[in-house]
TrEMBL record:
Protein name: Pyruvate dehydrogenase complex repressor
Function, in words: Transcriptional repressor for the pyruvate dehydrogenase complex genes aceEF and lpd.
Taxonomic placement: Bacteria, Pseudomonadati, Thermodesulfobacteriota, Desulfuromonadia, Desulfuromonadales
Keywords from the named record: DNA-binding, Pyruvate, Repressor, Transcription, Transcription regulation
UniProt domain HTH gntR-type: residue ranges: 11-79
TM region(s), chain numbering: none
Cross-referenced Pfam families: FCD (PF07729), GntR (PF00392)
CDD domains in UniProt: WHTH_GntR (cd07377)
Length: 245
């Protein structure tokens, strides 16, 4: 009977740090793409030595939770990015119509649900952030402009407002693929076709539904918006690659 038991080994400080950072990532306290404090700051916050922090960061990088970027800083890596980003990125860069269409369908499913949950769970600060981003969109639209990065931030803010960590990580990966290709292409397409005002109205209606705490309306307005995106993307791809659409 005694052979089934194993001696309890006290954890090293670095292991405690690893566990704490993993817990913060799983709870969404540390979000994909967020820069974590420096070694010196972490050592001060945790009351441990810098070598222990350095060892923990190396372990978390090896596990795929963190990544060091050129130019300095260590960032939270999207958990979905580890398995999804590289192969999908190659197909997106080639503007593979079938892959782009498939990504749009996935985005519709995830983001309509994000809007629904955000309307139920968004904090006041997150709704205020949506209003700030919308105000920027409104200013740009007056001159016929549309910034794909601001658009992306608007949608990611909605996802963050779900307070569902896995949802945030999955959509962060997919959204980065959209931003570099589809959203830029759609921005140009909308501009040429005069759809900027309609696009702005869609974002306002989504924002208002979330602010009004109306989940069904938020989901429906996001569906209306992304259905238009899907339709315009299909037309864009047909012009780009008529032989494959």
């Amino acid at each position: 009977m005694a052979t089934v038991f194993k001696p309890i080994r006290p954890k090293k400080l670095s292991e405690e740090i690893v566990d704490q950072i993993k817990e913060l990532i799983s709870r969404g306290e540390l979000k994909p793409g967020q820069r974590i404090p420096s070694e010196r700051e972490l050592a001060s916050f945790l009351g441990v030595s810098r070598p222990s922090v350095r060892e923990a960061i190396m372990v978390l990088e090896a596990m795929g939770f963190l990544e060091s970027r050129q130019g300095g800083g260590t960032y939270v890596r999207s958990l979905a990015d580890v398995t999804m980003a590289d192969p999908l990125a190659n197909m997106v860069e080639r503007r593979d119509p079938r892959m782009l269409h498939a990504l749009t369908e996935v985005r519709i499913g995830l983001e309509t649900w994000s809007a629904y949950l955000a309307a139920k769970r968004a904090e006041d600060s997150e709704i205020e952030r949506l209003r700030e981003l919308y105000s920027i969109m409104e200013d740009q639209a007056q001159t016929g402009g549309w910034d794909a990065d601001i658009d992306s931030q608007f949608h990611l803010t909605i996802t963050a407002a779900t307070h569902n960590t896995l949802q945030v990580h999955v959509l962060d990966t997919i959204q980065s693929l959209f931003q570099t290709t589809i959203m830029v292409a759609l921005s140009e397409f909308y501009s040429k076709e005069g759809y900027i005002e309609l696009l702005l109205n869609h974002h306002r209606e989504i924002m208002e539904a979330i602010a009004d705490r109306d989940p069904e309306r938020a989901r429906d307005k996001m569906m209306e918006h992304l259905t238009l995106v899907e339709e315009k993307l299909a037309l864009f791809l047909q012009k780009e690659r008529p032989d494959t659409v």
